[in-house]
Amino acid sequence: MSELLLQIDKTKLPKHIAIILDGNGRWAKNRLMPRTYGHLKGIETLGKLVKASKELGIKNLTVYAFSTENINRPISEVEFLMNEFLKFYREKFRKLVNDKINVRVIGETINLSKEVVDAIKDINDVPFNYDYFTFTICFNYGSQQEIAHATKEISKLVKMGRINVNDIDEKLINSYLYTKDLEPLDLVIRTSGECRLSNFLLWQLSYAELYFTDVYFPDFKEEELYKAIINYQNRNRRFGKLGEEK
After folding, report:
1. Residue pLDDT, tens place only, 221-244
2. At 87, is the secondary structure helix, strand, or coil?
3. Which residue among 70, 174, 199, 231 is the active-site one?
4. 71, 183, 196, 216: which is deepest, by most CB within 10 A?
């Protein structure tokens, strides 16, 4: 068993971890390989992290797989990523469900093909089970767009007279976000050395811990995840209150 795994306190696990999957292209470039090769290796790593997270006892793993801005990348790369998503749907999705894993895809459907939209609908139509481990894929996702969507939906309720403006609070807004079924976010990890959030879960990470690593995502395997969790467990989360210094 990994020495790092033995250092993790199973009673203080983050319930919800989110990862910004960054660095696939640079990882491939350093090996004189095309960017798509880096994405393939990143997908392999992601599969290992889903398995490791579930076995460890994490309840939710959310990943930033494709942002609304990524649609502006070269057409060949975008098509490759769309095809890999469809491959995941056809070859791996049902196995994850059979392994008692909720799979959810959140994001915008604009600019996506009918085939991809239909696959997303099929995935999200599977009933959600709160006792299962949940793997959420943020695909064609942008946090500002998500918040705007929630605002529009709540505005409709006000216009119809179903709620009063004074009824709008954090709880109501949460209930109209794509992540409404998930545990509160505890830990956000970004790989590749970049220290920005890139329009990812901006509302949800209000009190989350942030962890940045120089490791490119294809190399962010189980041991790196354990390091991030140990780092998280050594922090003093106060949520705005005073707490004991570590």
Report:
1. 999 999 999 999 999 876 666 555
2. helix
3. 70
4. 216
